[in-house]
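fold-stage: in
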Amino acid sequence: MGLNNKENEKAEFIIWTEKYSVENTVLDNQHKYLIKIINNLYNGTHGDEGQYNVKTIIDELWRYTDVHLKTEEKMLQNINYHQLDSHIQLHGEMVEKIKSWNLTSDCNEKEELTALLDFLKKWWTNHILIEDHKYVEFMQS
């Protein structure tokens, strides 16, 4: 999907485990890809920076986040998920936070990128483990 294919040589900032699974193949695969992008961003800021274009990775993260959120929200709408509005609100808050970073951050500032990475790791892991897991049982019924 347009990113470096040498993952086996790179550090993993976030490691996918089955505890993140929402028991939906489409959403799990999207979550895995988001984690892959975040790991690529981590490697672009902490590894051999010559192999990565940080701005390109951030752009891919932004694009794919949009794809994922729209997919997830549509699936939740289709099953009449009772917490859809609050789930969408959480997504919106995260999008605004990423937008502010993407628009104001100098992609070469390691300190800013480290703060962005910390935010992304905390937000995505907590969101998947807590908020997304709330709909797992609802999707299966």
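fold-stage: in (second)
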Amino acid sequence: MKIQLHTDRNIQHDESLTEHVDSVVSKALERFGAQVSRVEVHLRDLNAGKAGLGDKHCVMEARLEGRQPVVVSHDADKVREAVNGAAQKLQRLLDSTLGRLAAPTRQGRTGTPAAPAKVETSPDEAADLS
């Protein structure tokens, strides 16, 4: 899984922020393995550097193999809190989205067809079928 970090000019994009984002996103999405090919993380300061509550905004977009991308966002007072909140939301969304794909349908079948049952016939029945 590739993780891309984008920030606006009001967010300090340094190595510690990159490491934090990589760590949080990787840990939150590790169980989805190859189903998630890329996560884009966008961080911005809604108040352009002025102090304020809930002004750090994080958007995460996960690219899924063979499916449409999914997007979540989270606002918080601090950048790291916004990243953590968005990662938790993304994890729940992927649990829901990908979990539904693996869950049995109403008829009790999964999304993949079952192998045909092997029917044993006696030699006399086999001769009658020919």
